[in-house]
Write a structure and sequence with these properties.
148 residues; mainly alpha; 6 helices; 84% helix
Length: 148
């Protein structure tokens, strides 16, 4: 991604968070609010997810005994949490016509991309990377229109 695309992702993420918070506090359009929080989380998630992954790598190297005793490592737990969060946000919060979003769903949508990127689950990483690329391209175009 180019520098303009990274800046565009940040612009779109900031606007999505701003509008999402406004809708959240007015308790309007819950599915749109969740989508806006998901976009904001994707913009924020790249940097924060990299930091979490680095911190997790340090912690994982310090606990090989627990991994041997339990038979699975923390990566399995982090990956499972990322998948569950994403499914909760997308299936129970946004997609079906019968979905009944709760007040917690926007906040889950805000942290789901960060945990998804940190977990390294390939399908989630690809999904959030695709969203971030689209946001970056849209933000770069918007930046050219408004700034010149």
């Amino acid at each position: 991604m180019s520098t303009a695309a990274f800046a565009g992702t940040g612009v779109i993420a900031a606007l999505a968070l701003l509008f999402g918070l406004w809708l959240y506090f007015h308790d309007n359009m819950r599915k749109t609010t969740i989508l806006l929080f998901l976009l904001a989380g994707t913009g924020i998630g790249g940097l924060v997810g990299a930091l979490i992954a680095q911190a997790y790598g340090v912690a994982a190297n310090a606990t090989p005994l627990a991994t041997r005793l339990l038979g699975f490592g923390g990566a399995v737990i982090l990956g499972g949490l990322a998948v569950i969060l994403t499914l909760e946000v997308v299936i129970k919060g946004m997609l079906p016509k019968t979905a009944k979003p709760k007040r917690i769903h926007p906040w889950l949508a805000l942290v789901a991309p960060t945990i998804g990127l940190a977990s390294g689950v390939p399908i989630l990483f690809g999904l959030y990377r695709l969203i971030a690329t689209g946001m970056g391209n849209a933000g770069a175009v918007a930046q050219q229109w408004f700034v010149g």
